[in-house]
Queue: 2 jobs
Job 1
Amino acid sequence: MNRPALSVDRNSPVPLYFQVAQQLEAAIRDGKVAPGERLENEVQLADRCGLSRPTVRQAIQHLVDKGLLVRKRGVGTQVVQAQVRRSVELTSLYDDLAAAGGEPRTEVLELDTVEAPDQVAKELGVPPGAPVAKLRRLRYTGAEPLALLTNYLPGGLLEPTAADLAEHGLYELLRAAGINLRIANQTIGARSATAAEAQALDERRGVPLLTMTRTAYDDKGRAVEYGSHVYRASRYSFALTLVER
Amino acid sequence: MNRPALSVDRNSPVPLYFQVAQQLEAAIRDGKVAPGERLENEVQLADRCGLSRPTVRQAIQHLVDKGLLVRKRGVGTQVVQAQVRRSVELTSLYDDLAAAGGEPRTEVLELDTVEAPDQVAKELGVPPGAPVAKLRRLRYTGAEPLALLTNYLPGGLLEPTAADLAEHGLYELLRAAGINLRIANQTIGARSATAAEAQALDERRGVPLLTMTRTAYDDKGRAVEYGSHVYRASRYSFALTLVER
DNA sequence: AAGTGGTCTAGACCACATC
DNA sequence: ATGTGGTCTAGACCACTTC
């Protein structure tokens, strides 16, 4: 049992449940509450913060969804004893690399409006042949090429310049344009590099590549991006956390 | 706007919010509520079901977490216009294949108690050299080998027989033993097949393989399984749905 | 101005795990 | 028997979007 210090600011615009969740998360990450250790029960926690139980419950649920805590009826709430804790969230490769201090660099290979191929039209929910933006980029980390990225966006959604794309990740540009990504369907696989891919990625033909295709949807349920990417398997892998609900 | 038929049974042991979620999900999957279409607002829905608003909210949140719905303040709740809808959940390959009608078959290559190698000890949170169960299995779908699976479990947690493993998935056996999996950290990558792997999987040496390592935790936060697997990339890929919270 | 979801309260009863 | 989380109510006020 552990009682981390908790305080809430009722004048802050930050929701109360979120303030509590942040403080609990900080206590866990700093090791003030050890893996395997039990938290106070919800009622005590609520009393101690001066909040109602549903509000405290919402804070705890937030951390359960994040994979930091597990709850069991009749038992209590415990910290998961996991070592790694990186999850693939709804960010683009650029965001990931920037967050990890990887100095991402982008070379724009193509920036066009094309007629949507069948597969793309199907994924984006537009008629085949409708105009869509097509991007092809080569992503570096430091001096090393890392991935070859091909994206399609519904026509008129976003008209980025090559300069925009060199400086920012695609998802960053989408967010800046007021598009809030909510859901993505991804498929991850592997195959051998074609000659062209190998040359672009500074690898030899036939080396294994990781492939990822993704269709992303915004907060209105519209498909806003379809991507088909290949990564050098020697330098990249996907990490994710699954949480059973 | 759409008003699917909804009814709740207050004598059922199934929670009310879950009954509502199930009926909404069925209406969506049957196409009775089309992608992009808006649902009634929460208050109307609550009135119509004879439930309180928080209960209906919980039902909707459940479907938002599943990636079926998106919500936006001031706008409403809409059905996502996604075509694919398979997510990697916390199931094992055996479960996945069985659910897809893939007739899984398992050949047990090794079933031992060994001293935990450093990497395994670290992932399972046991001292290096502690006794752990080691399993090596070859998983087929129909006549074709699909994956080579290596797992480690903390000593004493589960003592399966080769017959158990031939008939059931590992996760199924864990559940039957009262172990409830809650969280898993996975890493997905790719590399070339070694000669031994190629032979076991009926491929040629050097073909690309998908790799997946996973550490799974139960509802008490304990690490209960570490797995290191390789899949034939020509016959398998991972599909998952990401939801921004 | 009207309508939507987001947050919050102060309780209540229940199911499950443990002792 | 006790303590835990799971579910549920009937409201309230607020922030955001759209018209």
Job 2
Amino acid sequence: MLDNRGGTFYKAYTRCCINFITLRLKRNCMRFSRMYLPTLKEEPAEAEVISHRLMLRAGMVRRLAAGIYSYLPMGLMALRNVEAIIRQEMNRAGAQELLLPAVQPAELWQESGRWDFYGKELLRITDRHQRNFCFGPTHEEVITDLVRHEVRSYRQLPLNLYQIQTKFRDEIRPRFGLMRGREFIMKDAYSFDVDDAAAGISYQGMREAYSRIFSLCGLDFRAVEADSGAIGGSFSHEFVVLAESGEDAVASCQACAYAANVEKAEGRFAAADKCAADAAAPAAAAVATPDRESVESVAAFFKVDPGAILKSMIFESDRGFCLVVVPGDREVNEIKVKAALGAEWLEIPAPSRIADELGLPVGYLGPVDTVLPLLVDRQVPELEAVVCGANRHGFHLQGVIWGRDFSCNKVADLVQVRAGDRCPRCGGLLQIDRGIEVGHIFKLGTKYSEKLKATFLDQEGQERPLVMGCYGIGVGRTVAAAIEQHYDENGICFPYAIAPFKVALLNLDLKSAEVTAACEALYAELEGRGIAVLYDDRNERPGVKFKDADLIGAPLRLTLGRKSFERGIIEARLRDGSSNAELPLADRAPLWSLLAELAADDSRIPS
RNA sequence: CGGGAUGUGGCUCAGCCCGGUAGAGCACUGCGUUCGGGACGCAGGGGUCGGAGGUUCAAAUCCUCUCAUCCCGACCA
């Protein structure tokens, strides 16, 4: 039979293969009547952010447990589209795809030191032999382990490996649907280089690839400087999609290119011409201020600006207790405090603990004659004759002067920037926007390669640790972010590139053989051109079809009913409402050029 | 983990205060009418009221415990 190349078996087999391939090509075309696409007319009660609501209503996802979601066909299609863009751009940038295990042995995490450090977010699992494993929240350990066994020489570098895979982080509070799930799909890439300079080139390459990826996804985003958090490392950028519902806040300069997460952002601080403490100034005096525990109420009491009050807060870290002092009109930035202390963890102890263990009254804390180590914001020494708590219940000190009444050699930038602060680069005005972090790139350095002994021999035969970088993209979050940025009161308005269906074809008159035949013909042609189309052939009233078409957000809606058929036209309406044209039924050319325009318009990459 | 709330047909919710027959709308099935922006009529199917315990002649309703989910704060793609 194997030799029967020209025979009937072979022909049948060939036809079978061709059918299979054709079916594969058509996988993104569907009849609505056959598709598992459970749309919801009513608002699901559990969802509060737009993307979550719309993804539930549009039949893209369903919740299985807190922070754990099933992707239905529509949702998966959107996800695959984002993945395709990611793959294309990662491969273009020279990265290679692989797939690492989701479940990882505890030993590796103990070796890197993160088994204890990562905390409760690490979902730990025990197998039948009582061996410890975890469900991977990230893959630095695994990739480093893989590479250390294979990479021996500088000749094998640079190397950039990535995967698209399910992660699990046991978030304290999962919320917002796919925006902060516990189980989520992430593209993570890891680069390995010979030295810091080469690692910088890898980092830059990823930065460019990320910009292309998010541009291709049709997103309005910013690449901003960021804190590197638990992953560690020296340098990092976040890619933030601007959206009202975002959990992150980004400070950006209105005059130059500076942009940073507010956790990281610095305001320029002009060291004013500070006059030395005036010895003649009256001594600080204690004033009874009963029930004045907030900065606002104290400011009102003394009839001064909140900026002339010192806000004093006790923090506890692995370095012990510490009193942090900032101007009263400022918020403390805990990330900066943590960095200034060089602490591993940081928290605000409960007022009861402060009272019991330190004997101090919250609401009346101050830096004068305190027993606690001080940490002072750099703006504090510039203030004169300020008010602060007297460390005595019901009393504040007035006329307190830096350098005379208290001082401290630990002075640092500790406050959160706010709109109107000055840019640290150019002095321009900073503005604050909310956004969703969809990508994050880190320069890791040798943190993991040293711990896991991933080394190579350089040109001089010296053994050196690999210099690493790591680069993540939340794939599901990117889909959600795209929806947050592209919707209206009727539903999703997908950017063309990630739209599960590019075209929604509505047959408004199933009973008419001619209309149906025209729709079927058009459907087949769109299919033949590889355009993802959802053909609404359901026996439903027109209103239902319009509502569903709007909800699922196909960029182009083609409508054919009896009236339009008799006039020889198809109605072509863009989902974003920007155009509503009548195309001739007899001539397809205008339709093809419209579709080509849509596709091209959306794939622009800003230089 | 702290603070707040909610669990009642598939979905959205009423009923709970003041204990006594489990309800509405949507969805689903059948028939008929309708048919360019989520139609209408008639007839149906579907619920151990999150779970356990208690009080009571009697519990969706009151009490205790428990589980789950959601919202506000500390983590992160």
